[in-house]
Amino acid sequence: MRVGVLTGGGDCPGLNAVIRGIVRKGVQEYGYDFTGFRDGWRGPLEGDSIQLDIPAVRGILPRGGTILGSSRTNPLKVDNGIRRIKENLAKSEVDALIAIGGEDTLGVAATLSDDHGVPCVGVPKTIDNDLSATDYTFGFDTAVNIATEAIDRLHTTAESHMRVLVVEVMGRHAGWIAIHSGLAGGANVILIPEQPFDVDQVCAWVTSRFKASYAPIVVVSEGAKPKDGDMVLKDGSLDEFGHVRLSGVGEWLAKEIERRTGKEARTTVLGHVQRGGTPSAFDRWLATRFGLHAIDAVREGDFGKMVALRGTDIVRVPIAQATAQLKTVDPKLYNEVGVFFG
Amino acid sequence: MRVGVLTGGGDCPGLNAVIRGIVRKGVQEYGYDFTGFRDGWRGPLEGDSIQLDIPAVRGILPRGGTILGSSRTNPLKVDNGIRRIKENLAKSEVDALIAIGGEDTLGVAATLSDDHGVPCVGVPKTIDNDLSATDYTFGFDTAVNIATEAIDRLHTTAESHMRVLVVEVMGRHAGWIAIHSGLAGGANVILIPEQPFDVDQVCAWVTSRFKASYAPIVVVSEGAKPKDGDMVLKDGSLDEFGHVRLSGVGEWLAKEIERRTGKEARTTVLGHVQRGGTPSAFDRWLATRFGLHAIDAVREGDFGKMVALRGTDIVRVPIAQATAQLKTVDPKLYNEVGVFFG
Amino acid sequence: MRVGVLTGGGDCPGLNAVIRGIVRKGVQEYGYDFTGFRDGWRGPLEGDSIQLDIPAVRGILPRGGTILGSSRTNPLKVDNGIRRIKENLAKSEVDALIAIGGEDTLGVAATLSDDHGVPCVGVPKTIDNDLSATDYTFGFDTAVNIATEAIDRLHTTAESHMRVLVVEVMGRHAGWIAIHSGLAGGANVILIPEQPFDVDQVCAWVTSRFKASYAPIVVVSEGAKPKDGDMVLKDGSLDEFGHVRLSGVGEWLAKEIERRTGKEARTTVLGHVQRGGTPSAFDRWLATRFGLHAIDAVREGDFGKMVALRGTDIVRVPIAQATAQLKTVDPKLYNEVGVFFG
Amino acid sequence: MRVGVLTGGGDCPGLNAVIRGIVRKGVQEYGYDFTGFRDGWRGPLEGDSIQLDIPAVRGILPRGGTILGSSRTNPLKVDNGIRRIKENLAKSEVDALIAIGGEDTLGVAATLSDDHGVPCVGVPKTIDNDLSATDYTFGFDTAVNIATEAIDRLHTTAESHMRVLVVEVMGRHAGWIAIHSGLAGGANVILIPEQPFDVDQVCAWVTSRFKASYAPIVVVSEGAKPKDGDMVLKDGSLDEFGHVRLSGVGEWLAKEIERRTGKEARTTVLGHVQRGGTPSAFDRWLATRFGLHAIDAVREGDFGKMVALRGTDIVRVPIAQATAQLKTVDPKLYNEVGVFFG
């Protein structure tokens, strides 16, 4: 038995831990061989692979990134993509495939498995934690810890200068990183994509915080949007160098707060530091267990499934079902956290 | 309505976050007043309390320890303990009590609530994560992160000198910290109280690791015990200064490994650093939500209950039931992790 | 004897450690009283102060920011500023003043001391480390550690996606943070204000790094400028919301690298996280010793002087002389570090 | 030109950074070849070496330990040690040697260079920072940061339970780690090998701290000794398992404090975690520059010298002179820090 492994989509702490879990258990307990495909679906599409054995996975547990590389290549959008993948799998004598990735990567795995007879098992990966069917995804806890530590540091700067600090964190469609790090960091306002915000309400919270002689921290998901129809960035507008303007919601909101409250406001965009580097202990634990259970699914021939966390158990769910819907922040939870606003 | 709050038992990162959550929601949403009892059950027993209001809980979210102090005082073992508590609660006009603590502290709360008509709500606290009815307790994630970071650091020392390093972590009756930090830190052997260990098997794993040209890290719970009846420490034995000898399993095991394998071995006892200091983001999140839900239970008159984590939800369970049984590491889980031994 | 203390200018980890050092030694060894002026020179200008005694400085050593607050108020630019300060000092019965701050704050102290008979001692503070006469200033080591940790994290993201990552760090006029964190973080290009850079040379280094199958990290001081006369940002230009455009050198450079090399490039602006939060051990050591030596200078009546680090010794230098010239990165040192470029 | 490199003595964060600095500059700027000898002086003694080139030093900057391995082998105590080294150097065509290590390792290098015509350059390494002629050695800053973070965490545990916490840190002959981490961590007592301590004085400080309603932290170097002739450990005494007893000063002191003050006291021995793992930014900077200057010394034929830090400059000093005397904590500095005791 030879099993292929690939990692697709954005960088996420814990990818190497998954790979190591798969290979350690697959080799030691089941005697499998492994082929690592490079750069997500580009690997099987172009037949680009490396050998994956126990020496190859030594020492990678604490390392961020992925030793297999990643890409956003989607074989469903490539001419003869599926045929080429099947040919390359046959050529490499790969009998089953484990795909580690987000919605897009797993969507391909579901199609291959359900419609084209390629035995696939999925491992969910989204730093935004917005995948249904699993309580948490690895990488998320690391991102939240990094964002929380940054917010901790920003408090003292805010207090010393009595300024508003707006912190923009990851989260295009779901506010999980914002709500977790904002609560953990003691933010005074948390804004998420699921709940369009009212700038005047934000300003009221900011003002109330100053009245208590403290300086406010506003945590905002990159995908959060104002209620009142204000455009945050004009898509396609060009700056003086002819480049498309990249203005995020954080920068825009800081300016609006300054304009409406008269208080100085600054923005910090945490960006890529949230998704690189060594994984937290929880993410190493979760990612490793995902790897161990994914190879068990292969062993049992349980294809078309994805491993998932439920409470403290690892379970299996159909990939197609798991990726059908985004997991967003429940209004009830947002409301619960709202007691700390202002 | 006036609510009393107390924290009992050992130190645990997140205690202050619970207190803050209770007070912020209780004051802002329900208009309650709060009395903070000092040093666990000693507070209501002796009528020793401080005022708990919003200014008192400002800035405490990231701080370890507890602003209320703690103790292991057990009023059930004190003459007229319960009567004195009831008198002091009456004197302070406290209508309900939230007790944050482990098995012992919560046991008192259950007795008071179930048998003596003192309305109590419990919040579970055990750094060892060994309380049934909740997926996780706060403080545990912080301890695991600290232990994992220490193991990460010890790897390079082990490699540079080709020594065995034995790391003793917390866990008297359950191996949760050992198994989580050992897996996350890439330990080569993990020993837990639930599974008496065979020293020769440990030595075989150690030797096999050296054969692969790496140096082994052995993670051992303070409560782990050897299979073969060797005494780890002789209770009551005195050293040359007339003090009771304090020799832990880690130190003992390192000596045994040296003796049996001929390899140099060293011990690191992580000790109290695992339970102090700022909580991780997850522990701040969990502890805060426990606080918010505990005051909701008071609001709803749902006494004799304890808040608990199930998946991502906070639920309520009868205190008496939750503390009836220790949550230990399932042999199946220990076996799952065993693939990384040696 | 009553001594006034104030902190001026930007936030910097270690300010509280200085204050604590001054007060602990002043009270315990010399029996002095202390007045803390709020928000830099605004405090003595407006007679706004708090009491500074031993309880007031308990627990502040590990905290970022300043318990006294800060501002950029310059009394030399305020009508009757010096007269008002002298009146308020007399009213508060303050006999001497310790001013903790950068070039501007210390410049005022020098003028007051040298020209107006107000006995002042200075403590240098600049997170950029660009003050002559001292080997290091506190806060700098913390900033370098934070930037280095961020660069460590960004490496794995860069590698996983084979992208260029541009990291913009603090340093308006001097490249100390960039050169220290860039070297420590293993950056492939470091650009500093002292050395206008050639974008084509940067692109050559970037390309050479990709040829070695690695992804480049470019660390750039916020004050670095290209050689060839390209404008990084057009001062005064407005964006579509009518706000002044804030485009930093990092964002601009990433676009240029993309345009010239065809490789994807991303920017991370570390911003305020570099200057907030708990100080590193070195900064706590240095800041505390600055405080201890500043109060000794007061005790000895050695006014108009500033404390400074030389090797491992704390010495005193005339404030006016110390602030006369910016400490910039020596071309020889930049050249030494250049062996790691590309 | 072929240059040999070796690392001797105890583990120390920054060793890999030195090696990388040497190789990067040696290869790129001077076109040298390199031979890495394994496990300190054992390497050239037994002719055990690996190839050192640019690929071999990629990615090692942030890693603790040493890719060359280390040992305490002393060729001066081995039959024909020097002759065998000279033969092996000749056989490997090594023209000069860079020895990175402490007093012992450098002592051999001095002898080889001064008395036996083997061209050697030294790089000082001692985590204890106790080597004369250099302001700081790499690894020390990392150890101090780790110890300080541990002390930060222990404060909250001490406060919550009103206990004495004794923290034993590294430092056999010099108290640098204790004095730096103790000051930075806000310890209430710091005990160092240079100043035999009076247990009653320690108890007085402890008691005074409790009177102020705080719990004391006592930081003690492993090499600190009581004044009054009490034996801390009886060399050669055996415990109940027939092993030599290992009781450190920390454990002993905690018991004495308990006995004399009646307060509960606990010990934490930080141990090996202080010397493993990723180096701090300062240590990476210092270690890298030591490497760059060591290869410059080889280039200039300046043998028998050791690189050293003076202020912010790297200088060269005769090895023999640099190792002649231990650098201990000046009583004046200890006294300066004493203002925070009690």
Automatic annotation (TrEMBL), chains A, B, C, D:
<dbReference type="GO" id="GO:0005945">
    <property type="term" value="C:6-phosphofructokinase complex"/>
</dbReference>
<keyword id="KW-0324">Glycolysis</keyword>
<dbReference type="InterPro" id="IPR015912">
    <property type="entry name" value="Phosphofructokinase_CS"/>
</dbReference>
<feature type="binding site">
    <location>
        <position position="10"/>
    </location>
    <ligand>
        <name>diphosphate</name>
    </ligand>
</feature>
<feature type="domain" description="Phosphofructokinase">
    <location>
        <begin position="2"/>
        <end position="298"/>
    </location>
</feature>
<comment type="subunit">
    <text>Homodimer or homotetramer.</text>
</comment>
<dbReference type="GO" id="GO:0070095">
    <property type="term" value="F:fructose-6-phosphate binding"/>
</dbReference>
<dbReference type="InterPro" id="IPR035966">
    <property type="entry name" value="PKF_sf"/>
</dbReference>
<feature type="active site" description="Proton acceptor">
    <location>
        <position position="128"/>
    </location>
</feature>
<dbReference type="Pfam" id="PF00365">
    <property type="entry name" value="PFK"/>
</dbReference>
<feature type="binding site">
    <location>
        <position position="266"/>
    </location>
    <ligand>
        <name>substrate</name>
    </ligand>
</feature>
<feature type="site" description="Important for catalytic activity; stabilizes the transition state when the phosphoryl donor is PPi">
    <location>
        <position position="125"/>
    </location>
</feature>
<keyword id="KW-0418">Kinase</keyword>
<feature type="binding site" description="in other chain">
    <location>
        <position position="222"/>
    </location>
    <ligand>
        <name>substrate</name>
    </ligand>
</feature>
<dbReference type="GO" id="GO:0048029">
    <property type="term" value="F:monosaccharide binding"/>
</dbReference>
<feature type="binding site" description="in other chain">
    <location>
        <begin position="170"/>
        <end position="172"/>
    </location>
    <ligand>
        <name>substrate</name>
    </ligand>
</feature>
<dbReference type="GO" id="GO:0016208">
    <property type="term" value="F:AMP binding"/>
</dbReference>
<protein>
    <recommendedName>
        <fullName>Pyrophosphate--fructose 6-phosphate 1-phosphotransferase</fullName>
        <ecNumber>2.7.1.90</ecNumber>
    </recommendedName>
</protein>
<dbReference type="InterPro" id="IPR012003">
    <property type="entry name" value="ATP_PFK_prok-type"/>
</dbReference>
<dbReference type="GO" id="GO:0003872">
    <property type="term" value="F:6-phosphofructokinase activity"/>
</dbReference>
<dbReference type="GO" id="GO:0046872">
    <property type="term" value="F:metal ion binding"/>
</dbReference>
<comment type="similarity">
    <text>Belongs to the phosphofructokinase type A (PFKA) family. Mixed-substrate PFK group III subfamily.</text>
</comment>
<dbReference type="InterPro" id="IPR022953">
    <property type="entry name" value="ATP_PFK"/>
</dbReference>
<dbReference type="GO" id="GO:0030388">
    <property type="term" value="P:fructose 1,6-bisphosphate metabolic process"/>
</dbReference>
<keyword id="KW-0808">Transferase</keyword>
<dbReference type="GO" id="GO:0006002">
    <property type="term" value="P:fructose 6-phosphate metabolic process"/>
</dbReference>
<dbReference type="GO" id="GO:0042802">
    <property type="term" value="F:identical protein binding"/>
</dbReference>
<feature type="site" description="Important for catalytic activity and substrate specificity; stabilizes the transition state when the phosphoryl donor is PPi; prevents ATP from binding by mimicking the alpha-phosphate group of ATP">
    <location>
        <position position="104"/>
    </location>
</feature>
<feature type="binding site">
    <location>
        <position position="163"/>
    </location>
    <ligand>
        <name>substrate</name>
    </ligand>
</feature>
<dbReference type="InterPro" id="IPR012829">
    <property type="entry name" value="Phosphofructokinase_III"/>
</dbReference>
<keyword id="KW-0460">Magnesium</keyword>
<comment type="pathway">
    <text>Carbohydrate degradation; glycolysis; D-glyceraldehyde 3-phosphate and glycerone phosphate from D-glucose: step 3/4.</text>
</comment>
<feature type="binding site">
    <location>
        <position position="103"/>
    </location>
    <ligand>
        <name>Mg(2+)</name>
    </ligand>
</feature>
<feature type="binding site" description="in other chain">
    <location>
        <begin position="126"/>
        <end position="128"/>
    </location>
    <ligand>
        <name>substrate</name>
    </ligand>
</feature>
<keyword id="KW-0479">Metal-binding</keyword>
<dbReference type="GO" id="GO:0061621">
    <property type="term" value="P:canonical glycolysis"/>
</dbReference>
<dbReference type="GO" id="GO:0047334">
    <property type="term" value="F:diphosphate-fructose-6-phosphate 1-phosphotransferase activity"/>
</dbReference>
<feature type="binding site" description="in other chain">
    <location>
        <begin position="272"/>
        <end position="275"/>
    </location>
    <ligand>
        <name>substrate</name>
    </ligand>
</feature>
<dbReference type="GO" id="GO:0005524">
    <property type="term" value="F:ATP binding"/>
</dbReference>
<keyword id="KW-0963">Cytoplasm</keyword>
<comment type="function">
    <text>Catalyzes the phosphorylation of D-fructose 6-phosphate, the first committing step of glycolysis. Uses inorganic phosphate (PPi) as phosphoryl donor instead of ATP like common ATP-dependent phosphofructokinases (ATP-PFKs), which renders the reaction reversible, and can thus function both in glycolysis and gluconeogenesis. Consistently, PPi-PFK can replace the enzymes of both the forward (ATP-PFK) and reverse (fructose-bisphosphatase (FBPase)) reactions.</text>
</comment>
<dbReference type="InterPro" id="IPR000023">
    <property type="entry name" value="Phosphofructokinase_dom"/>
</dbReference>
